[in-house]
Write a structure and sequence with these properties.
single chain; Ferritin; about 70% helix; metal-binding; Ferritin-like; Ferritin_DPS_dom; iron; EC 1.16.3.1
């Protein structure tokens, strides 16, 4: 077994792993809550946006191992909402909080001349930005429409008509 190495990059990858596991637990719990409330349309949108989180966790973990590091991270307590508004607000706060850490991680990787890790982190950051924009839009709609109308709009899963109805 190879000796493990602790470097600024392996430390930041462990920090990211802890953050991603906490975020994934929060997002999955919120998804189940939203489904249990019958908001299947919103749940489908949430599921689509978190589907790649296990892939991201595996990519970060594999990079850590490739660099000779070992998993040594702490998973923070997820911020679980108890209402639709809290679910959206907590997920938005988590996404907003991820951006500075990912930017800092990319800078550390660049300073350590580790382009592979920097590119991985920048790819994750781009995905987080898309998730952030979606959540920001959802919360904005929630506030503009009010909970009853927003909820009514998020009950059913949107489907695309594939062909006109028979005559």
């Amino acid at each position: 077994m190879a000796e493990t190495q602790t470097t600024p990059v392996t430390e930041l990858l462990n920090e990211l792993l802890g953050s991603y596991w906490a975020g994934y637990a929060q997002h999955r719990t919120h998804l189940v809550l939203v489904e249990s409330w019958g908001l299947h349309g919103l749940a489908a949108g949430m599921a689509q946006r978190i589907a790649d989180e296990p892939v991201t966790i595996a990519a970060v973990l594999n990079r850590l191992l490739d660099l000779g590091g070992r998993p040594d991270f702490v998973v923070a307590k997820p911020a679980i909402g108890t209402s639709l508004r809290e679910v959206l607000e907590n997920d938005l706060a988590a996404q907003r909080g991820a951006r500075p850490g990912l930017n800092q991680a990319a800078e550390v990787a660049a300073a350590e001349h580790d382009a592979t890790t920097r590119i991985l982190i920048e790819t994750v950051l781009a995905d987080e930005e898309r998730h952030l924009a979606w959540l920001d839009t959802e919360l904005s709609l929630y506030h503009r429409l009010g909970e009853p109308l927003y909820t009514a709009q998020r009950l059913a899963v949107a489907t695309a008509a594939t062909s006109p109805a028979p005559a």
